Amino acid sequence: MATIIPANPVGALPPEVLRTFRALKALPEDYIVWHHLAPWTPDAPDFLVRTPEGAAVVLKVSAASAQEVHPVAQMLLLGRDEPELGIAEESVVKDFLSGLEQTLGDADPPPIQAILIFPNIEQKKLRAARPASSRSSIQWLGKDSSITFSSGIPLSEAQWEHLRRAFTPEVIVPAALTVRKAPGRHIDAKLTGFLLDYDQEAAIKTDLALNESGEPLAGNFRLNLVNGVTGSGKSLILLYRLRLLYELYPGKNFLVLTHNRALIRDLEARFYRLTRREPENIRWFTFIRWCRVHWPDDEPWHIPVGVEKQDALLRRVKTKTRLTTGMLRSEVAWVKDNAITNRESYLEADRRRRGFGLTREQRNRVFAAIREYQAQLHPRGDWYDVPLKMWQFIEQGRVTPQTYDVVLVDEAQFFAPVWFKIVQRLVKPQSGHLFLAADPTQGFLRQGISWKSLGLEVRGRSYRLKYSYRTTRRILSFAARFYQMRVPNDAESTDILTPDLRTMPAGTTPVIIPLTSPQDEIIRIANEVAALVKQGMRREDILVLHTDAIGVKQLITAIDRQLGRGAALDPKDSYPGNYVRVTTVNAGTGLESPIVFLVGVNRIFEGEGSLRLSEADRAELVLNNTRKIYMAATRAGQKLTISIVGEIPGILRQMSAEGICEIMG
User: Fold this and answer.
1) SS3 368
2) Which of 106, 365, 414, 477 is at a distance of 20 to 30 A from 115, taking alpha carbons?
């Protein structure tokens, strides 16, 4: 069976096109077939075929019936003034091929076989009725003829790239939407942007048919998942899928959710750059913001306590639990994320993969400590309480959320189980569609928690992306080596290190800048940023990630002092624009930029050396910090710079000796 993109018909196709779709799908597996989708270019061939040899064939399907067929001689004799059979369809093919030649300029046009298919007309009658004005270079096939392809001349990959741009414009990625550096190929002078690869294209076009008939689905809603390695384009695929669904079903309503403000603003801005539209039927929220907007009017809203206040309260109540503050904080989050609200449920809950075991008696003491902690939080609560309370409001009937035809979730691995309980209530029952984009090496997925345990059956409905396009070989080698050296026994590290480095551009070596004080660090990074901007680098192409919020504010002030007020902003608080993005490492998840500065890293190393940490807490902190730095480093598309205050850690010195990074003198 051939690979056909999309794998299933989308929308109400004419029966003639549907029959042709099925016939092409039955070709041998070494054929690739595209069905034209882009509703903004309706006049195009219906199918594009890539043969095993690499030759190209375009096919147009005619809906002409047998009753419309009249031999040419009869038409001349009777003097009928009717549209000539097949000429309109031939014109579409002709215009498509002519447009392709024009985009090539002086380059030789690719040799493309063209076929016009008449599923309702026998071949014999078709030959007799073919007008003299018909182009002899286009093959006509009737319903009793097999679809066969001439051996043809294989197209070069550059010619195939041109052809895909023309036939599937929905897979063109404008240069402004990617941090990739254009490869040095002769063809690039005549092209703008990039193309999604075949796996990415298949992911955006899988299961696009929304339920228009009102007939119930086999499950409560349709579900699709795309996951993949860092930089594989998961967020981009979510946006492209949203655009395609919006164009195909403009009357439907859509909801996009993610976990942090910087990313949701970035997604919304990228969608506008892609479409130049701000449709009212597409809503964009962080999940917590969605909860706040839908908070019941009769329930007071209190700003939850932050991490410092939370830890202070936990230290007061943890004495009888024999847990460290970090372990108890983790247990509080787990209890609330799983909507465990009473002692009995907690005692019976499955705590496997929690990282530390508890006897029944210990569970009783821990739950008592959580109760005491919660009482001291009243009335504000912590941030884990917000989704939990919202779920309770929905269960009690105090909140009846709007449902959506399509809900798309980016960075879904950071959504807690109780979040997914709510998300499933937002999908229109029996007809809606839920699309998830996730990184299997982060969040709950790295802990071995399955989608099925969350009530989501993704088996047979997922796509895995294997190739990283965001960053360079040297940056990813740095991040991977750093991870391997810090947590060599992490069984899950193989998932993180799967990208094929051979397919990636080499890029520049990551740079380590040693500094003597935090003040010097702020000044130096501001100077580096200002120098790049003065050399012509666009402000929006620079991302600065600091390990704490205070450092973010100091950096913004220092950069503004160099480049003027508003030159640097926190993307959590502003939509993307002509400014340097400066935010925390935690808020950097999902963002990307050609140039990335990673600042305040020494604070991470210093925190791991605290004498107050137990060995279990220290190991967990090292693992989490390592993943955090790996994530931050791989935000960079072209250049990565890391600043270190104080002594350079031994791991970075060793990596410098191996040539993986460069320490500036």
Assistant:
1) helix
2) 106
Place of tokens 């400590």: 369
Same domain? For 642 and 558 the reply is: yes
Q: What is the pLDDT of residue 216?
A: 47
Q: What is the mean pLDDT of residues 547-571?
A: 96
Domain of residue 441, CATH code: 3.40.50.300
Q: Is residue 301 included in any domain, yes or no? A: no
The end-to-end CA distance of the chain, in Å, is: 60
Amino acid at 371: R
Q: Is the pTM of this model over 0.85?
A: yes
Is the preceding omega at residue 6 within 30 degrees of 0, hence cis?
yes
Distance CA 367, CA 513 (A): 46
pLDDT over 70, % of the chain: 91
Q: State mean pLDDT over 500-529.
A: 91
Distance CA 257, CA 435 (A): 10
More confident residue, 433 or 101: 433
pLDDT of 219: 59
**Alpha carbons 240 and 267: distance in angstroms, whole number:** 11
Output the six-digit token pair for 465: 């992306």
Cα dihedral sign, 642-647-649-650 = positive
Residues 315 and 349 in one domain: yes
Helix (H) or strand (E) holding 595: strand 593-599
Average pLDDT score, the chain? 88
What is the rounded distance in angstroms from the CA atom of residue 245 to the CA atom of residue 254?
Answer: 9
* One domain for residues 214 and 119: no
Q: Tokens in use for 257?
A: 């959710």
DSSP state of 404: B
Q: How far is CA 250 from CA 253, 280, 635, in A?
A: 8, 11, 33
Nearest alpha-carbon partner for 259 in 392, 390, 386, 413: 413
- What pLDDT, on the 0 to 100 scale, is given for residue 107? 62
Q: pLDDT-derived band of residue 499, with 50, 70 and 90 as boundaries?
A: low
Structural domain boundaries enclosing 314? 307-387
**Average of pLDDT values for 484-493?**
75
β-bridge partners, 463 = 226
The CA distance from 490 to 446, in Å, is: 11
Angle between helices 325-337 and 615-633 (to 10 degrees): 60
